[in-house]
Amino acid sequence: MTPATQRLSARSMAFILAGGRGSRLHELTDNRAKPAVYFGGKTRIIDFALSNALNSGIRKMAIATQYKAHSLIRHCQRGWNFFRAERNEYLDILPASQRVDENHWYEGTADAVYQNIDIVDSYDIDYVVILAGDHIYKMDYEVMIREHVESGADVTVGCLTVARPEATAFGVMAIDASGRITDFVEKPKDPPALPGDPDRALVSMGIYVFRWKFLRQLLMDDAADESSQHDFGGNIIPNVVRNGKAVAHRFEDSCVRHSPEAPSYWRDVGTIDAFWKANIDLTDFDPDLDLWNRDWPIWTYSETVPPAKFIHNEESRRGLALSSLVSGGSIISGTEVRNSLLFTGVHSNSWSTLTEAVVLPYVNIGRHARLSKVVIDRGVTIPEGLIVGEDPEEDAKWFRVTPGGVTLITQTMLDRRAGQR
Questions:
Q1: What confidence score (pLDDT) does residue 1 get?
Q2: Is 106 flagged in the annotation as binding?
Q3: Which of 261, 262, 287, 393 is deepest in the core (most CB within 10 A)?
Q4: Is domain 8-283 classified as CATH 2.160.10.10?
Q5: Where are the chain's structural domains?
Q6: 90 marked as part of a ligand binding site
């Protein structure tokens, strides 16, 4: 196969920006970056961007990390270590390592790429796909890269169509009838509407496609600009909109669906409420996000654990799960689980109930506990008889209760509660 007839993804790399904490997840990101947060029973958030790239045919990837990166780096080393250099495949992890000078960490999303220009150069690629590592979705990047090349754009921006009131939380684009971006504004109070559709707006997904030679020069110029924040959304993209050709790519054109009539699915699980809902939505009879589709799998690190086990079959002490996902290594011992998602290695004990619970790995739930509408952090030991989700005022004394009524439970919170009772 000659270079001219190769899939464009074979001449591309994915650069994943995974350095952010995700402060709106509060204690869930005390010890891990947002892209390393668990999702869906087995995976981490970053697995979606990585899997999309792999399934799209991209075999050269780099991940820029910064905030509390150990959990993320360890996950990628264990679960994404199958790339082979002899097949011209690479996955490089690029921590902020003071490569410019001893006081210079990553100062923005564009700076994270700028500081690794020599590494990207070594990949010998034509196109670079810049990705955020903290969103849940399935997307074929080959479609977007091809549209970028065919349009002759300097940058192609992945876009979502949302109701205008929701657009105030995003970078918003004004476009003309051809899809060319005429303006790009971050979190405007009055978002520009789509042409012919006054109720909806086009917002950025944080996904950008560039020809590498073009982006390389942009980054060099941006690094020399002392007034710049060195950010893609704040500086690089507005610069191309003003001085070059920026084109919008609509997510619905490249979204991977499990059926033709399924809606396009993209979620920013950046708050506890959004994180809880996206996980609980997977317990639906026909969830919008299909994790069972073997044509577009979400790859991850799979621990070697035994199957889930359900024991006891007595009145009021029956190990059962209804409309729930229960991961391997879990033991449901005389517990009733309803509309919940349990990650690997969860052990729940007799006479307990879990309702609309998202339980992260290796949690142990004591006897007679009643927990509803909760998120429980990894490794927590729930004491016997704990009741959460029935008295919000009492819950708020010890735990974090969100505006949506979800209660986050961590071991630190439980220890503080035990010390004050």
A1: 42
A2: yes
A3: 287
A4: no
A5: 8-283, 309-420
A6: no
**In the prediction, which pLDDT does 67 show?**
85
For the stretch 23-36, pLDDT in tens is 889 999 998 999 99
* pLDDT tens-digit series, residues 386-411: 999 999 999 999 999 999 999 999 99
CATH fold of 309-420 reads UDP N-Acetylglucosamine Acyltransferase; domain 1 (2.160.10)
What's this model's pTM, rounded to 2 decimal places?
A: 0.94
Q: Per residue in 145-156, pLDDT tens?
A: 999 999 999 999
pLDDT of residue 40: 96
Pairing of strands 400-401, 407-409: antiparallel
Q: What is the pLDDT at residue 101?
A: 53
Write out residues in the chain with pLDDT < 70, as ranges.
1-6, 97-104
Is 204 marked as binding a ligand?
yes
